[in-house]
Amino acid sequence: MNKITASIVGASGYAGGELLRLLLFHQHVEVKQVTSERYFGKFVHKVHPNLRGQTTLKFCSMEDLQPCDVLFLCLPHGEAQKRIDQFLLLAKRIIDLSADFRLQDAEVYRLWYGHDHLKPELLPEFVYGIPELHREEMEKAHLISSAGCNATATILALFPLFKEGLAEQERTVVEVKVGSSEAGNKANEGSHHPIRHGCVRSFKATGHRHQAEIVQELSFQGPISVYFSATAIEMVRGVLATCHVFLKQEVTEKDIWKVYRKYFTNEPFLRIIKERDGVYRYPEPKLLAGTNFCDVGFELDASAKRLVVISAIDNLMKGAAGQALQAMNIMLGFTETMGLEFPGLHPI
Ligand SMILES: NC(=O)c1ccc[n+]([C@@H]2O[C@H](COP(=O)([O-])OP(=O)(O)OC[C@H]3O[C@@H](n4cnc5c(N)ncnc54)[C@H](OP(=O)(O)O)[C@@H]3O)[C@@H](O)[C@H]2O)c1
């Protein structure tokens, strides 16, 4: 089989670097170009030392991009929509990892991002990048917008309950704990080591933009309300989402098992983690570092008709590069798990 060509825009960042790590070992992909405006002309291992000896690629500038089969965009928010016309001339298939094309409704976009979208007509053309929800659309897609990492952890935790109509539409409370790599490689005052080290910092108690994606994707049976908060903790990779779901009716633990098994059993990257004893009774992000899994567990508080659903992912993998590669595999008709089979490290 001939290899397809893929290029990465913004490849010096954390998501771009992770994507490069994956694509270099994908048997049907040749990585054609990787861009960085800061490092163009330099070998990629200068920025991503884990790739030393794995490739002789050098970064190029965005201006030097040539046509390719698939173009991955790993730019900060707002940059993809500015340049999308140029990118569409270069590749028929685009996977954007930023938030630019995740929301389908331009008005919702304006509400959450505080400005008008530059290309509102393109929003409905992008398929939202969670394969477990949009696999069939992805098979026919040319444009995919990868999902937010916190949104991915939350949506994968909750979609079976909303699909089955078990959860109250009006109130679901989600708290995510996130690692430092979620903020990208640009340093700021808060990321300075003496300040960031050891922190448990509530940085977005309300108004987190991923809330809009979660509502968009979980409103299967009419609009829902989600109350979402985010806390930065001492961790480099990972998201742990704790979701408090209020149930419409009394259910047993057996009922919940049945629902999750229905949606998870055939999913290669979704696992139910719920043990009776031991250390690893529930999902834990550090065990997923470098993997594309999303682990989900639950505990029923029957007296309150409350279900606590806990999910974990690696934000740079199932939350970004891994999920984008999974989407590419589906879009191009490759085996969905290709290049993503790594089981993770233990202990780590
Ligand atoms: N980190 C995560 O966990 C995660 C998860 C899901 C989605 N995402 C999304 O993926 C995208 C990349 O995230 P990241 O964490 O990899 O960010 P990052 O580490 O900051 O990397 C972004 C890259 O884009 C380039 N860039 C920066 N400013 C630019 C500008 N004004 N114009 C053009 N290029 C610019 C930079 O490369 P040069 O300056 O060298 O060109 C930089 O390396 C973001 O939109 C983010 O929201 C991130």
Report low-confidence residues grouped into runs of 5 or more: none
Number of helices: 9
Which structural class fits the helix and strand makeup? Answer: alpha/beta
- Sheet with the most strands? 7 strands, parallel
Shape: globular
Task: Report the radius of gyration as a whole number of Å.
Answer: 20 Å
| Helix-strand topology string | EHEEEHEHEHEHEHEHEEHEEEH
Mean pLDDT: 97
CATH superfamily of the largest domain: Dihydrodipicolinate Reductase, domain 2
What small ligands are held by the chains?
NADP nicotinamide-adenine-dinucleotide phosphate
Beta-strand fraction estimate = 15-25%
- Helicity range of the residues? 25-40%
CATH class identity of the largest domain: Alpha Beta
What fold name stands as the CATH topology of the largest domain? Answer: Dihydrodipicolinate Reductase, domain 2
Distance between the termini: 37 Å
Give the strand order of the largest sheet, numbering strands 1, 2, ... along the chain: 3-2-1-4-5-7-6
Describe this structure in words.
The model has no long low-confidence stretch (mean pLDDT 97). This protein has helices spanning 14-23, 79-90, 106-113, 131-140, 149-163, 193-196, 210-218, 253-264, 321-332; strands at residues 4-9, 29-35, 59-60, 70-73, 93-96, 127-128, 143-145, 167-178, 201-204, 226-232, 239-247, 270-272, 294-301, 306-313. It is globular and about 60 Å long. With 348 residues, it is α/β, with parallel strands linked by helices. Helices cover 26% and strands 23% of the residues. The protein has two domains: 4-146 and 320-332, Rossmann fold, CATH 3.40.50.720; 150-313, Dihydrodipicolinate Reductase, domain 2, CATH 3.30.360.10. The chain has a seven-stranded parallel β-sheet, with helices on both faces. It has nine helices and 14 strands. Bound molecules: NADP nicotinamide-adenine-dinucleotide phosphate. NADP nicotinamide-adenine-dinucleotide phosphate (NAP) binds at residues 10, 12-16, 36-39, 74-77, 79, 97-99, 148-149, 181-182, 184-186, 315-316, 319-320.
